[in-house]
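Subject: mismatched residue count in predicted assembly?

I count 582 residues in my input, but I want to confirm that the predicted structure covers every chain. Input:
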Amino acid sequence: MKNITLRIGIVLVLLAVVFLASVVAGPRMINPFTADPISREILFSIRAPRSIVALLMGMALGASGAVLQGILRNPLADPYILGISSGASLSAALGILGGLSIFGSFTIPVFAFIGALFTGGIVGVMGWKRGGIWPERLLLAGVGLSFLFSSLLMLMMTISSDEGLRKAMLWIFGDLSMSDWSRIPYGLFFIAGGIALSAMRARALNALILGDEFAYSLGFSPHRERGMLFVSVGLLTAASVSLGGMIGFIGLLVPHMMRFFIGSDSRGLILSSALGGGILLCLADLISRTIMPPMELPAGIITAIIGSPYFLYLLRKKNVLGV
Amino acid sequence: MSSASDTGILELSGIRFSYSGGSAFVDNLGFRIGEGEFIGLLGANGSGKSTILKIAAGILTPSAGEVSLWNKPLHAYNNKDRAKLLCYLPQSLDMTIPFTVSELVGMGLYPYDIAPEMSVDDALDLVGLRDKAQSRISDLSGGERRRAFVAMTLIQGAGIFLLDEPLANLDIRYQIELVKLLRDLRTARKITVVMALHDINIALQFEKVILIKKGTIIGQGRPEDILTEENISEAFGVQVKIMRHPDGKAYISYAENFS
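Triage response: the counts match. Full output below for your records.
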Protein backbone atom coordinates (compact mmCIF):
# COMPACT_ATOMS: atom_id res chain seq x y z
CA MET A 1 0.00 0.00 0.00
CA LYS A 2 2.88 2.35 0.86
CA ASN A 3 4.30 1.54 -2.51
CA ILE A 4 1.06 2.60 -4.21
CA THR A 5 1.04 5.91 -2.34
CA LEU A 6 4.60 6.51 -3.53
CA ARG A 7 3.70 5.66 -7.09
CA ILE A 8 0.67 7.95 -7.07
CA GLY A 9 3.05 10.60 -5.73
CA ILE A 10 5.31 10.07 -8.74
CA VAL A 11 2.32 10.45 -11.06
CA LEU A 12 1.37 13.68 -9.28
CA VAL A 13 4.88 15.11 -9.71
CA LEU A 14 4.82 14.17 -13.38
CA LEU A 15 1.45 15.87 -13.71
CA ALA A 16 2.81 19.08 -12.19
CA VAL A 17 5.85 19.06 -14.50
CA VAL A 18 3.81 18.46 -17.66
CA PHE A 19 1.24 21.04 -16.66
CA LEU A 20 3.85 23.74 -16.01
CA ALA A 21 5.65 22.88 -19.23
CA SER A 22 2.41 23.17 -21.19
CA VAL A 23 1.77 26.62 -19.71
CA VAL A 24 5.29 27.91 -20.29
CA ALA A 25 6.01 26.35 -23.67
CA GLY A 26 4.39 27.27 -26.95
CA PRO A 27 5.41 28.91 -30.21
CA ARG A 28 7.34 31.19 -27.86
CA MET A 29 8.66 30.21 -24.43
CA ILE A 30 7.40 32.52 -21.71
CA ASN A 31 9.16 32.75 -18.38
CA PRO A 32 6.39 33.75 -15.96
CA PHE A 33 8.85 35.59 -13.72
CA THR A 34 10.38 37.86 -16.33
CA ALA A 35 7.41 38.19 -18.66
CA ASP A 36 6.30 41.59 -19.98
CA PRO A 37 2.61 42.54 -19.62
CA ILE A 38 1.65 41.20 -23.06
CA SER A 39 3.29 37.86 -22.47
CA ARG A 40 1.68 37.75 -19.05
CA GLU A 41 -1.68 38.33 -20.67
CA ILE A 42 -1.01 35.45 -23.10
CA LEU A 43 0.00 33.27 -20.20
CA PHE A 44 -3.05 34.08 -18.11
CA SER A 45 -5.80 34.42 -20.71
CA ILE A 46 -4.75 31.85 -23.30
CA ARG A 47 -2.28 29.28 -22.10
CA ALA A 48 -3.33 28.78 -18.50
CA PRO A 49 -7.03 28.15 -19.22
CA ARG A 50 -6.13 25.94 -22.15
CA SER A 51 -3.78 23.83 -20.05
CA ILE A 52 -6.33 23.59 -17.27
CA VAL A 53 -9.02 22.53 -19.74
CA ALA A 54 -6.66 19.88 -21.18
CA LEU A 55 -5.81 18.70 -17.68
CA LEU A 56 -9.42 18.45 -16.50
CA MET A 57 -10.65 16.89 -19.72
CA GLY A 58 -7.87 14.31 -19.64
CA MET A 59 -8.76 13.52 -16.04
CA ALA A 60 -12.40 12.97 -16.94
CA LEU A 61 -11.46 10.74 -19.88
CA GLY A 62 -8.96 8.65 -17.92
CA ALA A 63 -11.30 8.06 -14.98
CA SER A 64 -14.30 7.30 -17.20
CA GLY A 65 -12.24 4.71 -19.10
CA ALA A 66 -11.24 2.97 -15.87
CA VAL A 67 -14.84 2.80 -14.67
CA LEU A 68 -16.29 1.76 -18.03
CA GLN A 69 -13.74 -1.01 -18.57
CA GLY A 70 -14.63 -2.36 -15.13
CA ILE A 71 -18.42 -2.26 -15.30
CA LEU A 72 -18.44 -3.79 -18.76
CA ARG A 73 -15.60 -6.21 -17.94
CA ASN A 74 -14.17 -5.20 -21.25
CA PRO A 75 -10.65 -3.83 -21.73
CA LEU A 76 -11.61 -2.21 -25.03
CA ALA A 77 -14.26 0.01 -23.48
CA ASP A 78 -13.90 3.77 -23.55
CA PRO A 79 -16.59 6.45 -23.91
CA TYR A 80 -15.28 7.42 -27.35
CA ILE A 81 -15.23 3.92 -28.86
CA LEU A 82 -18.64 3.07 -27.40
CA GLY A 83 -20.21 6.15 -28.97
CA ILE A 84 -21.04 7.71 -25.61
CA SER A 85 -18.93 10.79 -26.38
CA SER A 86 -20.55 11.35 -29.77
CA GLY A 87 -24.01 10.86 -28.25
CA ALA A 88 -23.16 13.42 -25.60
CA SER A 89 -21.77 15.82 -28.23
CA LEU A 90 -24.82 15.49 -30.46
CA SER A 91 -27.09 16.16 -27.53
CA ALA A 92 -25.02 19.19 -26.50
CA ALA A 93 -25.07 20.51 -30.08
CA LEU A 94 -28.83 20.10 -30.20
CA GLY A 95 -29.02 22.13 -27.03
CA ILE A 96 -26.92 24.92 -28.53
CA LEU A 97 -28.69 24.94 -31.90
CA GLY A 98 -32.08 24.84 -30.25
CA GLY A 99 -31.05 28.00 -28.44
CA LEU A 100 -31.89 26.32 -25.17
CA SER A 101 -30.46 27.83 -22.08
CA ILE A 102 -32.83 26.46 -19.49
CA PHE A 103 -29.95 25.46 -17.26
CA GLY A 104 -27.94 28.67 -17.77
CA SER A 105 -24.24 28.05 -18.29
CA PHE A 106 -24.86 24.44 -17.32
CA THR A 107 -26.93 23.87 -20.45
CA ILE A 108 -24.12 22.28 -22.47
CA PRO A 109 -22.93 19.82 -19.82
CA VAL A 110 -26.48 18.95 -18.77
CA PHE A 111 -27.42 18.15 -22.36
CA ALA A 112 -24.17 16.24 -22.79
CA PHE A 113 -24.96 14.27 -19.62
CA ILE A 114 -28.41 13.34 -20.88
CA GLY A 115 -26.94 12.35 -24.26
CA ALA A 116 -24.25 10.25 -22.58
CA LEU A 117 -26.75 8.33 -20.45
CA PHE A 118 -29.09 7.86 -23.39
CA THR A 119 -26.35 6.56 -25.70
CA GLY A 120 -24.86 4.38 -22.99
CA GLY A 121 -28.30 2.91 -22.39
CA ILE A 122 -28.81 2.08 -26.07
CA VAL A 123 -25.32 0.55 -26.39
CA GLY A 124 -25.92 -1.47 -23.23
CA VAL A 125 -29.27 -2.78 -24.44
CA MET A 126 -27.80 -3.69 -27.84
CA GLY A 127 -24.84 -5.43 -26.25
CA TRP A 128 -27.06 -7.39 -23.86
CA LYS A 129 -28.10 -10.89 -24.74
CA ARG A 130 -29.22 -13.80 -22.58
CA GLY A 131 -28.48 -12.23 -19.24
CA GLY A 132 -25.05 -10.88 -20.02
CA ILE A 133 -23.08 -8.31 -21.93
CA TRP A 134 -21.42 -9.61 -25.07
CA PRO A 135 -18.22 -7.70 -25.75
CA GLU A 136 -18.39 -7.95 -29.54
CA ARG A 137 -22.00 -6.84 -29.71
CA LEU A 138 -21.26 -3.96 -27.37
CA LEU A 139 -18.29 -2.80 -29.39
CA LEU A 140 -20.09 -3.02 -32.71
CA ALA A 141 -23.15 -1.24 -31.34
CA GLY A 142 -20.89 1.51 -30.02
CA VAL A 143 -19.00 1.91 -33.28
CA GLY A 144 -22.25 1.97 -35.25
CA LEU A 145 -23.85 4.60 -33.04
CA SER A 146 -20.66 6.60 -32.98
CA PHE A 147 -20.71 6.85 -36.80
CA LEU A 148 -24.38 7.72 -36.84
CA PHE A 149 -24.11 10.46 -34.24
CA SER A 150 -20.93 11.96 -35.72
CA SER A 151 -22.59 12.11 -39.14
CA LEU A 152 -25.68 13.74 -37.70
CA LEU A 153 -23.44 16.23 -35.95
CA MET A 154 -21.65 17.08 -39.17
CA LEU A 155 -24.95 17.34 -41.01
CA MET A 156 -26.20 19.80 -38.43
CA MET A 157 -23.04 21.86 -38.75
CA THR A 158 -23.24 21.89 -42.54
CA ILE A 159 -26.86 22.94 -42.86
CA SER A 160 -26.73 25.37 -39.99
CA SER A 161 -27.22 28.84 -41.48
CA ASP A 162 -25.80 30.77 -38.58
CA GLU A 163 -22.06 31.25 -39.08
CA GLY A 164 -21.47 32.35 -35.50
CA LEU A 165 -23.26 29.34 -34.12
CA ARG A 166 -21.25 27.09 -36.38
CA LYS A 167 -17.99 28.52 -35.12
CA ALA A 168 -19.23 28.20 -31.57
CA MET A 169 -19.66 24.48 -32.10
CA LEU A 170 -16.34 23.64 -33.71
CA TRP A 171 -14.85 22.61 -30.38
CA ILE A 172 -17.15 19.60 -30.39
CA PHE A 173 -14.81 17.81 -32.76
CA GLY A 174 -12.02 17.85 -30.23
CA ASP A 175 -10.38 21.25 -30.36
CA LEU A 176 -8.78 22.81 -27.32
CA SER A 177 -7.68 26.01 -29.04
CA MET A 178 -10.87 27.82 -28.10
CA SER A 179 -10.56 27.04 -24.43
CA ASP A 180 -11.18 29.88 -22.02
CA TRP A 181 -11.90 30.24 -18.33
CA SER A 182 -15.67 30.19 -18.80
CA ARG A 183 -15.92 26.43 -19.29
CA ILE A 184 -13.76 25.46 -16.39
CA PRO A 185 -16.18 25.83 -13.45
CA TYR A 186 -18.90 23.57 -14.78
CA GLY A 187 -16.36 21.11 -16.14
CA LEU A 188 -14.83 20.95 -12.69
CA PHE A 189 -18.24 20.47 -11.11
CA PHE A 190 -19.11 17.47 -13.27
CA ILE A 191 -15.65 15.92 -12.94
CA ALA A 192 -15.69 16.25 -9.18
CA GLY A 193 -19.12 14.62 -9.10
CA GLY A 194 -18.10 11.79 -11.42
CA ILE A 195 -14.85 11.00 -9.66
CA ALA A 196 -16.39 11.22 -6.20
CA LEU A 197 -19.26 8.92 -7.14
CA SER A 198 -17.05 6.33 -8.81
CA ALA A 199 -14.45 6.46 -6.05
CA MET A 200 -17.17 5.85 -3.46
CA ARG A 201 -18.27 2.77 -5.41
CA ALA A 202 -14.73 1.54 -6.16
CA ARG A 203 -15.12 -1.59 -4.01
CA ALA A 204 -18.31 -2.48 -5.85
CA LEU A 205 -16.45 -1.92 -9.11
CA ASN A 206 -13.79 -4.41 -8.03
CA ALA A 207 -16.50 -6.92 -7.19
CA LEU A 208 -18.22 -6.36 -10.55
CA ILE A 209 -14.93 -7.07 -12.31
CA LEU A 210 -15.00 -10.52 -10.68
CA GLY A 211 -18.49 -11.05 -12.07
CA ASP A 212 -22.07 -10.34 -11.04
CA GLU A 213 -22.44 -13.51 -8.99
CA PHE A 214 -19.35 -12.68 -6.97
CA ALA A 215 -20.52 -9.12 -6.52
CA TYR A 216 -23.82 -10.43 -5.18
CA SER A 217 -22.11 -12.92 -2.90
CA LEU A 218 -19.91 -10.13 -1.54
CA GLY A 219 -22.99 -8.15 -0.55
CA PHE A 220 -23.56 -5.85 -3.50
CA SER A 221 -26.55 -5.46 -5.75
CA PRO A 222 -24.87 -5.80 -9.17
CA HIS A 223 -27.49 -3.95 -11.21
CA ARG A 224 -27.74 -1.05 -8.80
CA GLU A 225 -23.97 -0.68 -8.51
CA ARG A 226 -23.49 -0.86 -12.26
CA GLY A 227 -26.20 1.78 -12.65
CA MET A 228 -24.53 4.17 -10.21
CA LEU A 229 -21.13 3.68 -11.76
CA PHE A 230 -22.67 4.26 -15.15
CA VAL A 231 -24.06 7.58 -13.94
CA SER A 232 -20.52 8.52 -12.93
CA VAL A 233 -19.35 7.71 -16.48
CA GLY A 234 -22.15 9.95 -17.74
CA LEU A 235 -20.99 12.82 -15.52
CA LEU A 236 -17.37 12.39 -16.58
CA THR A 237 -18.25 12.18 -20.28
CA ALA A 238 -20.45 15.26 -19.98
CA ALA A 239 -17.50 17.07 -18.43
CA SER A 240 -15.02 16.03 -21.08
CA VAL A 241 -17.35 16.75 -23.99
CA SER A 242 -18.32 20.17 -22.75
CA LEU A 243 -14.69 21.06 -22.06
CA GLY A 244 -13.12 20.02 -25.33
CA GLY A 245 -15.51 17.97 -27.41
CA MET A 246 -14.66 14.50 -28.60
CA ILE A 247 -11.11 13.34 -28.00
CA GLY A 248 -10.50 9.64 -28.21
CA PHE A 249 -8.24 6.95 -26.90
CA ILE A 250 -7.24 8.53 -23.59
CA GLY A 251 -9.96 6.65 -21.78
CA LEU A 252 -8.81 3.47 -23.48
CA LEU A 253 -5.09 3.87 -23.08
CA VAL A 254 -4.53 5.34 -19.65
CA PRO A 255 -6.24 2.71 -17.44
CA HIS A 256 -4.07 0.03 -19.07
CA MET A 257 -0.91 1.98 -18.36
CA MET A 258 -2.02 2.58 -14.79
CA ARG A 259 -2.96 -1.06 -14.20
CA PHE A 260 0.61 -1.80 -15.05
CA PHE A 261 2.08 0.95 -12.89
CA ILE A 262 -0.31 1.22 -9.92
CA GLY A 263 -2.21 -2.07 -9.93
CA SER A 264 -5.76 -3.10 -10.73
CA ASP A 265 -7.54 -2.23 -7.50
CA SER A 266 -10.16 0.28 -8.62
CA ARG A 267 -9.64 2.33 -5.47
CA GLY A 268 -6.23 3.38 -6.80
CA LEU A 269 -6.96 2.90 -10.47
CA ILE A 270 -9.75 5.48 -10.83
CA LEU A 271 -7.69 8.24 -9.25
CA SER A 272 -4.46 7.32 -11.00
CA SER A 273 -6.22 7.02 -14.37
CA ALA A 274 -7.63 10.49 -13.85
CA LEU A 275 -4.14 11.85 -13.16
CA GLY A 276 -2.62 9.88 -16.02
CA GLY A 277 -5.33 11.11 -18.39
CA GLY A 278 -4.56 14.68 -17.37
CA ILE A 279 -0.86 14.14 -18.06
CA LEU A 280 -1.47 12.54 -21.43
CA LEU A 281 -3.87 15.15 -22.76
CA CYS A 282 -1.74 18.05 -21.49
CA LEU A 283 1.21 16.47 -23.24
CA ALA A 284 -0.74 15.78 -26.44
CA ASP A 285 -1.94 19.38 -26.49
CA LEU A 286 1.58 20.65 -25.90
CA ILE A 287 2.87 18.57 -28.80
CA SER A 288 -0.02 19.60 -31.03
CA ARG A 289 0.76 23.30 -30.74
CA THR A 290 4.55 23.15 -30.75
CA ILE A 291 5.36 20.43 -33.28
CA MET A 292 4.99 22.61 -36.39
CA PRO A 293 4.57 26.24 -35.44
CA PRO A 294 2.79 28.39 -36.23
CA MET A 295 0.33 25.65 -37.24
CA GLU A 296 -1.71 23.96 -34.57
CA LEU A 297 -2.98 20.42 -34.80
CA PRO A 298 -6.07 19.36 -32.86
CA ALA A 299 -4.96 17.42 -29.77
CA GLY A 300 -7.35 14.63 -30.79
CA ILE A 301 -5.09 13.86 -33.76
CA ILE A 302 -2.12 13.31 -31.49
CA THR A 303 -4.07 11.05 -29.10
CA ALA A 304 -5.45 9.09 -32.06
CA ILE A 305 -1.98 8.62 -33.56
CA ILE A 306 -0.77 7.18 -30.25
CA GLY A 307 -4.02 5.44 -29.39
CA SER A 308 -5.15 3.62 -32.54
CA PRO A 309 -2.12 1.34 -32.84
CA TYR A 310 -2.54 0.51 -29.17
CA PHE A 311 -6.22 -0.29 -29.71
CA LEU A 312 -5.31 -2.67 -32.55
CA TYR A 313 -2.65 -4.23 -30.36
CA LEU A 314 -5.23 -4.80 -27.60
CA LEU A 315 -7.63 -6.39 -30.09
CA ARG A 316 -4.94 -8.88 -31.06
CA LYS A 317 -4.12 -9.74 -27.52
CA LYS A 318 -6.42 -11.90 -25.44
CA ASN A 319 -7.05 -11.62 -21.72
CA VAL A 320 -5.84 -8.06 -21.77
CA LEU A 321 -7.64 -7.16 -18.59
CA GLY A 322 -5.44 -9.64 -16.78
CA VAL A 323 -2.10 -8.60 -18.15
CA MET B 1 -32.00 -34.47 21.15
CA SER B 2 -32.42 -31.27 19.24
CA SER B 3 -29.29 -30.74 17.24
CA ALA B 4 -28.73 -27.88 14.83
CA SER B 5 -29.45 -30.16 11.92
CA ASP B 6 -33.05 -30.54 13.12
CA THR B 7 -33.74 -26.85 12.89
CA GLY B 8 -31.90 -26.13 9.66
CA ILE B 9 -29.97 -22.95 9.02
CA LEU B 10 -30.76 -22.85 5.33
CA GLU B 11 -34.04 -24.21 4.16
CA LEU B 12 -35.71 -24.36 0.77
CA SER B 13 -39.38 -25.24 0.60
CA GLY B 14 -41.84 -25.59 -2.26
CA ILE B 15 -39.39 -24.01 -4.69
CA ARG B 16 -40.58 -23.53 -8.24
CA PHE B 17 -38.36 -21.94 -10.82
CA SER B 18 -38.27 -21.63 -14.58
CA TYR B 19 -35.88 -19.82 -16.89
CA SER B 20 -37.53 -17.09 -18.90
CA GLY B 21 -40.06 -18.53 -21.27
CA GLY B 22 -39.39 -22.14 -20.33
CA SER B 23 -41.47 -24.65 -18.39
CA ALA B 24 -40.73 -25.29 -14.73
CA PHE B 25 -37.10 -26.28 -14.40
CA VAL B 26 -37.32 -26.86 -10.68
CA ASP B 27 -40.67 -27.77 -9.21
CA ASN B 28 -41.75 -28.20 -5.60
CA LEU B 29 -38.20 -28.66 -4.40
CA GLY B 30 -37.32 -28.55 -0.76
CA PHE B 31 -34.46 -29.47 1.53
CA ARG B 32 -32.95 -28.38 4.79
CA ILE B 33 -29.31 -27.80 5.61
CA GLY B 34 -28.22 -28.18 9.23
CA GLU B 35 -25.40 -26.28 10.86
CA GLY B 36 -22.00 -27.85 10.30
CA GLU B 37 -23.18 -30.25 7.62
CA PHE B 38 -20.97 -31.13 4.69
CA ILE B 39 -23.21 -31.97 1.78
CA GLY B 40 -22.59 -33.10 -1.77
CA LEU B 41 -25.13 -32.17 -4.43
CA LEU B 42 -25.10 -34.67 -7.28
CA GLY B 43 -26.93 -35.06 -10.55
CA ALA B 44 -26.39 -35.33 -14.27
CA ASN B 45 -25.33 -32.36 -16.38
CA GLY B 46 -28.32 -30.07 -16.73
CA SER B 47 -30.15 -31.65 -13.79
CA GLY B 48 -30.32 -28.30 -12.00
CA LYS B 49 -27.43 -28.39 -9.51
CA SER B 50 -26.23 -24.89 -10.38
CA THR B 51 -29.76 -23.56 -10.53
CA ILE B 52 -30.56 -24.95 -7.09
CA LEU B 53 -27.38 -23.48 -5.59
CA LYS B 54 -28.11 -20.10 -7.15
CA ILE B 55 -31.65 -20.18 -5.76
CA ALA B 56 -30.27 -21.09 -2.32
CA ALA B 57 -27.78 -18.20 -2.61
CA GLY B 58 -30.51 -15.76 -3.65
CA ILE B 59 -29.00 -15.05 -7.05
CA LEU B 60 -32.04 -16.55 -8.77
CA THR B 61 -35.47 -15.76 -7.38
CA PRO B 62 -37.98 -18.63 -7.39
CA SER B 63 -41.47 -18.01 -8.73
CA ALA B 64 -42.95 -19.94 -5.81
CA GLY B 65 -41.71 -21.25 -2.49
CA GLU B 66 -39.30 -19.76 -0.04
CA VAL B 67 -35.64 -19.82 0.91
CA SER B 68 -35.03 -19.12 4.56
CA LEU B 69 -31.73 -18.42 6.22
CA TRP B 70 -31.60 -18.82 9.99
CA ASN B 71 -35.42 -18.99 10.02
CA LYS B 72 -35.83 -15.68 8.23
CA PRO B 73 -36.72 -15.27 4.56
CA LEU B 74 -33.54 -14.79 2.52
CA HIS B 75 -34.98 -11.79 0.67
CA ALA B 76 -35.63 -10.04 3.99
CA TYR B 77 -31.89 -9.68 4.61
CA ASN B 78 -30.05 -6.67 3.29
CA ASN B 79 -27.16 -7.47 0.97
CA LYS B 80 -24.36 -6.94 3.45
CA ASP B 81 -25.98 -8.86 6.30
CA ARG B 82 -26.68 -11.77 3.98
CA ALA B 83 -23.08 -11.73 2.75
CA LYS B 84 -21.87 -12.17 6.33
CA LEU B 85 -23.88 -15.39 6.66
CA LEU B 86 -23.89 -16.95 3.22
CA CYS B 87 -21.41 -17.01 0.36
CA TYR B 88 -21.49 -18.53 -3.08
CA LEU B 89 -18.64 -19.50 -5.34
CA PRO B 90 -19.57 -19.94 -9.01
CA GLN B 91 -18.23 -22.75 -11.12
CA SER B 92 -16.29 -20.73 -13.63
CA LEU B 93 -13.58 -18.57 -12.14
CA ASP B 94 -12.54 -16.09 -14.77
CA MET B 95 -8.78 -16.25 -15.12
CA THR B 96 -8.63 -12.91 -16.89
CA ILE B 97 -9.38 -10.92 -13.77
CA PRO B 98 -6.55 -8.49 -13.21
CA PHE B 99 -6.09 -8.71 -9.43
CA THR B 100 -3.31 -10.12 -7.30
CA VAL B 101 -4.04 -12.90 -4.82
CA SER B 102 -3.98 -10.59 -1.82
CA GLU B 103 -6.18 -8.02 -3.56
CA LEU B 104 -8.70 -10.74 -4.36
CA VAL B 105 -8.67 -12.23 -0.87
CA GLY B 106 -9.06 -8.75 0.64
CA MET B 107 -12.35 -8.36 -1.21
CA GLY B 108 -13.82 -10.86 1.23
CA LEU B 109 -13.81 -7.99 3.74
CA TYR B 110 -16.14 -5.84 1.62
CA PRO B 111 -19.31 -6.64 3.57
CA TYR B 112 -17.69 -5.27 6.72
CA ASP B 113 -17.26 -1.74 7.91
CA ILE B 114 -14.91 -2.90 10.65
CA ALA B 115 -12.60 -5.69 9.57
CA PRO B 116 -13.21 -9.00 11.37
CA GLU B 117 -10.45 -10.84 13.17
CA MET B 118 -9.12 -12.81 10.21
CA SER B 119 -6.49 -11.03 8.14
CA VAL B 120 -5.59 -11.62 4.51
CA ASP B 121 -2.38 -13.32 5.61
CA ASP B 122 -4.30 -15.64 7.98
CA ALA B 123 -6.61 -16.68 5.17
CA LEU B 124 -3.69 -17.25 2.81
CA ASP B 125 -1.99 -19.38 5.46
CA LEU B 126 -5.11 -21.51 5.82
CA VAL B 127 -5.18 -22.31 2.11
CA GLY B 128 -1.38 -22.48 1.77
CA LEU B 129 -0.96 -19.56 -0.59
CA ARG B 130 1.02 -17.14 1.58
CA ASP B 131 4.00 -17.18 -0.78
CA LYS B 132 1.74 -16.34 -3.74
CA ALA B 133 0.20 -13.26 -2.14
CA GLN B 134 1.59 -10.88 -4.75
CA SER B 135 1.04 -13.17 -7.75
CA ARG B 136 -1.64 -12.33 -10.25
CA ILE B 137 -4.68 -14.61 -10.31
CA SER B 138 -4.06 -15.19 -14.01
CA ASP B 139 -0.62 -16.65 -13.23
CA LEU B 140 -1.90 -19.31 -10.81
CA SER B 141 -2.56 -22.96 -11.55
CA GLY B 142 -6.16 -24.17 -11.51
CA GLY B 143 -5.82 -25.57 -8.00
CA GLU B 144 -4.19 -22.46 -6.63
CA ARG B 145 -6.86 -20.28 -8.19
CA ARG B 146 -9.60 -22.30 -6.46
CA ARG B 147 -7.80 -22.00 -3.17
CA ALA B 148 -7.39 -18.25 -3.63
CA PHE B 149 -11.16 -17.90 -4.07
CA VAL B 150 -11.76 -20.16 -1.08
CA ALA B 151 -9.51 -17.85 0.94
CA MET B 152 -11.65 -14.91 -0.17
CA THR B 153 -14.82 -16.67 0.96
CA LEU B 154 -13.13 -17.66 4.25
CA ILE B 155 -12.25 -14.09 5.08
CA GLN B 156 -15.81 -13.13 4.23
CA GLY B 157 -16.62 -15.00 7.42
CA ALA B 158 -19.93 -16.44 6.24
CA GLY B 159 -20.95 -19.68 7.95
CA ILE B 160 -22.51 -21.25 4.87
CA PHE B 161 -20.51 -22.03 1.74
CA LEU B 162 -22.42 -22.80 -1.44
CA LEU B 163 -19.86 -24.06 -3.93
CA ASP B 164 -20.69 -24.85 -7.53
CA GLU B 165 -18.42 -27.64 -8.73
CA PRO B 166 -15.31 -26.42 -6.95
CA LEU B 167 -13.51 -29.60 -8.01
CA ALA B 168 -14.06 -29.07 -11.73
CA ASN B 169 -10.88 -29.06 -13.80
CA LEU B 170 -8.70 -30.07 -10.88
CA ASP B 171 -6.48 -33.13 -10.94
CA ILE B 172 -6.94 -35.86 -8.32
CA ARG B 173 -4.43 -34.38 -5.92
CA TYR B 174 -5.99 -30.92 -5.95
CA GLN B 175 -9.47 -32.42 -5.62
CA ILE B 176 -8.45 -34.35 -2.52
CA GLU B 177 -6.57 -31.35 -1.14
CA LEU B 178 -9.52 -29.02 -1.58
CA VAL B 179 -12.03 -31.40 0.00
CA LYS B 180 -9.66 -31.99 2.92
CA LEU B 181 -9.09 -28.27 3.28
CA LEU B 182 -12.82 -27.59 3.41
CA ARG B 183 -13.33 -30.41 5.93
CA ASP B 184 -10.58 -29.08 8.14
CA LEU B 185 -12.09 -25.63 7.91
CA ARG B 186 -15.44 -27.04 8.83
CA THR B 187 -13.94 -28.26 12.08
CA ALA B 188 -11.77 -25.20 12.67
CA ARG B 189 -14.16 -22.45 11.51
CA LYS B 190 -17.50 -24.26 12.01
CA ILE B 191 -18.62 -23.75 8.44
CA THR B 192 -21.42 -25.53 6.63
CA VAL B 193 -20.64 -26.66 3.09
CA VAL B 194 -22.93 -27.53 0.21
CA MET B 195 -21.04 -28.37 -2.94
CA ALA B 196 -22.12 -29.56 -6.34
CA LEU B 197 -19.81 -32.25 -7.63
CA HIS B 198 -19.57 -35.02 -10.20
CA ASP B 199 -17.14 -37.49 -8.71
CA ILE B 200 -19.20 -40.19 -7.03
CA ASN B 201 -16.14 -41.69 -5.38
CA ILE B 202 -15.50 -38.42 -3.61
CA ALA B 203 -19.19 -38.01 -2.77
CA LEU B 204 -19.12 -41.48 -1.15
CA GLN B 205 -16.70 -40.00 1.41
CA PHE B 206 -19.17 -37.26 2.38
CA GLU B 207 -21.53 -37.55 5.31
CA LYS B 208 -24.58 -36.49 3.37
CA VAL B 209 -25.55 -36.24 -0.27
CA ILE B 210 -28.52 -34.93 -2.20
CA LEU B 211 -29.15 -36.64 -5.52
CA ILE B 212 -31.24 -34.78 -8.05
CA LYS B 213 -32.75 -35.43 -11.44
CA LYS B 214 -34.41 -32.79 -13.59
CA GLY B 215 -34.87 -30.38 -10.74
CA THR B 216 -36.37 -32.87 -8.29
CA ILE B 217 -34.72 -34.76 -5.45
CA ILE B 218 -34.31 -38.49 -5.91
CA GLY B 219 -32.94 -38.93 -2.43
CA GLN B 220 -31.02 -37.30 0.36
CA GLY B 221 -29.14 -38.78 3.27
CA ARG B 222 -26.05 -40.86 3.91
CA PRO B 223 -24.18 -41.63 0.69
CA GLU B 224 -24.34 -45.40 1.17
CA ASP B 225 -28.12 -45.14 1.32
CA ILE B 226 -28.54 -42.71 -1.53
CA LEU B 227 -25.77 -43.49 -3.98
CA THR B 228 -27.05 -46.96 -4.74
CA GLU B 229 -26.74 -48.69 -8.07
CA GLU B 230 -30.46 -48.16 -8.72
CA ASN B 231 -30.47 -44.46 -7.85
CA ILE B 232 -27.35 -43.76 -9.88
CA SER B 233 -28.85 -45.57 -12.82
CA GLU B 234 -31.96 -43.44 -12.49
CA ALA B 235 -30.09 -40.15 -12.12
CA PHE B 236 -27.40 -40.67 -14.74
CA GLY B 237 -28.79 -43.37 -17.01
CA VAL B 238 -25.79 -45.68 -16.74
CA GLN B 239 -25.15 -49.00 -15.06
CA VAL B 240 -22.58 -48.93 -12.29
CA LYS B 241 -21.38 -51.23 -9.54
CA ILE B 242 -20.88 -50.10 -5.97
CA MET B 243 -17.93 -52.06 -4.59
CA ARG B 244 -16.53 -52.40 -1.12
CA HIS B 245 -12.93 -51.86 -0.31
CA PRO B 246 -11.52 -54.40 2.18
CA ASP B 247 -11.40 -51.58 4.76
CA GLY B 248 -15.16 -51.11 4.35
CA LYS B 249 -15.23 -47.94 2.25
CA ALA B 250 -17.52 -47.96 -0.76
CA TYR B 251 -16.39 -47.05 -4.22
CA ILE B 252 -17.97 -47.02 -7.65
CA SER B 253 -16.96 -48.94 -10.73
CA TYR B 254 -18.32 -48.33 -14.20
CA ALA B 255 -15.65 -50.06 -16.21
CA GLU B 256 -18.24 -52.58 -17.44
CA ASN B 257 -19.85 -49.91 -19.60
CA PHE B 258 -16.81 -49.78 -21.84
CA SER B 259 -16.54 -53.47 -22.71
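The two ends of chain B are 50 Å apart (CA to CA). Marking this ticket as 'not a bug'.
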